[in-house]
């Protein structure tokens, strides 16, 4: 039961971060969204809001890595499409009201520790994508560069699509990444 309460609070924090950012995500909202009792805040997060935010960043990071792990062995174009599809689904399900909860921590970090925490999640995503692209035949250096481009471009595409309330920027970025993958694949064949 106690673990379930903590999990609900962390899940609620992931969603609130993705929609509102760090500064606008309060303990009160997390409690309301999760249905957790007030006393559970400092029981589960004795170090306060930063501990909750770090747990939410971890959860968001782990979800993306699990998705990537499930793509092992697929062709690089399918890996790219699945990663982009994850972000497109976030935009679609939220009607452009949510983005990346990890990115939210970097926009207005409340501490250097949280910024480093978000950085480690982005490094994990880039690293796992690079491993997958390299396993798909891309040279390791090219795989690292392309993985970094994919993470940076998809994050930016989500931001633009949220701002414009349209898939157009996202789809244009996705098209550009697919073209970059094709060019990289041809030059390394």
Q: Helical stretch count?
A: 9
Instruction: Please outline the major beta sheet.
Output: none
Report the C-alpha radius of gyration, rounded: 18 Å
The helix-and-strand class reads mainly alpha
- Order of SSEs: HHHHHHHHH
**pLDDT averaged residue by residue:** 91
The assembly state of the depicted protein chains is single chain
What general form does the structure show?
Answer: elongated
Question: Low-confidence parts lasting 5 or more residues at pLDDT below 50?
Answer: none
The helix content is: over 70%
Record field, number of beta strands = 0
Binned strand content: under 5%
Distance between the termini: 54 Å
Describe what this molecule looks like in 3D:
- It is built from 9 helices and no strands.
- It has about 190 residues and is mainly α.
- The N and C termini lie far apart (about 55 Å).
- The model has no long low-confidence stretch (mean pLDDT about 90).
How would you summarize the topology of this molecule?
Blueprint: H1 2-20, H2 27-34, H3 40-44, H4 49-69, H5 76-94, H6 101-107, H7 112-135, H8 140-164, H9 168-187
Helix pairs in contact: 1-2, 1-4, 1-6, 4-7, 5-8, 5-9, 6-7, 7-8, 8-9
Short description:
The chain is mainly alpha-helical. The chain is built from nine helices and no strands. The longest helix has 25 residues.
């Amino acid at each position: 039961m106690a673990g379930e309460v903590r999990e609900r609070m962390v899940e609620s924090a992931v969603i609130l971060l993705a929609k509102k950012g760090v500064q606008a995500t309060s303990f009160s909202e997390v409690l309301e969204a999760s249905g957790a009792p007030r006393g559970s805040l400092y029981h589960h997060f004795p170090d306060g809001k930063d501990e909750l935010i770090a747990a939410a960043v971890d959860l968001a990071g782990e979800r993306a890595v699990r998705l990537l792990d499930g793509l092992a062995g697929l062709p690089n174009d399918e890996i790219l499409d699945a990663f982009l599809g994850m972000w497109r689904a976030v935009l679609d399900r939220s009607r452009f009201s949510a983005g990346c909860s990890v990115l939210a921590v970097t926009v207005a970090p409340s501490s250097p520790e949280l910024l480093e925490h978000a950085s480690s999640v982005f490094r994990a995503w880039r690293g796992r994508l690079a491993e997958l692209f390299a396993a798909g035949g891309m040279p390791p250096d090219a795989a690292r560069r392309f993985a970094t481009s994919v993470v940076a471009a998809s994050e930016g595409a989500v931001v633009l699509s949220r701002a414009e309330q349209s898939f157009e920027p996202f789809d244009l970025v996705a098209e550009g990444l697919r073209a970059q993958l094709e060019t990289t694949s041809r030059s390394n064949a």
